[in-house]
Amino acid sequence: MAAKVVGATTIVAVDINPSRLALAEELGATHTVDASTEDTGTRLRQIRPDGYHYILEITAQPRMLALAVDHLRPMGTAALIGGAPAGTTAPIDMNRLLNGGRRLRGIAQGDSVPQIFIPQLADLYRAGKFPVDRLVRTYDFADINQAFADAASGEVIKPVLLMN
Questions:
Q1: What predicted TM-score, i.e. pTM, was given to this entire model?
Q2: What is the number of helices (H) and of strands (E) in the chain?
Q3: Cα(1)–Cα(4) distance, rounded to whole angstroms?
Q4: Could you report the per-residue pLDDT of 7-45, keeping only the tens digit for each?
Q5: Is the dihedral of CA 28, 34, 40, 45 positive or negative?
């Protein structure tokens, strides 16, 4: 959704859950890659042979971060958003970063000023350009185990627990 809002023209969603890929298409992805059935690297190269300006890595899987760096175009940026366990390392080809001035960075808490960013998101939501409610499902706190199970299976993207 965010990539669409800022005017990106090639938006690729990679996942292993077909329903999540379908939702990504509905919300603005121009291409999808089912990593459970396709070679992700090959497919990414087919879509953008010259590489990508920006890649967001949200799985916190080391091999996916390395794949992101490998598919950047010169001066491109890969951003790590997913929270990996402490001590997790990724096999990054350091020369891939150096050649072409590629960048790798972490993003914490959206790297935004909440007093500015949250009202902007609310405006986008009201305008129908950022339907975040399509990603969220609420659960009573008593159903916490179901919320975890649904998140693990990919049935829900963002489970939210309600505490009374």
A1: 0.86
A2: 7, 7
A3: 5
A4: 999 999 999 999 899 999 999 999 999 999 999 999 999
A5: negative
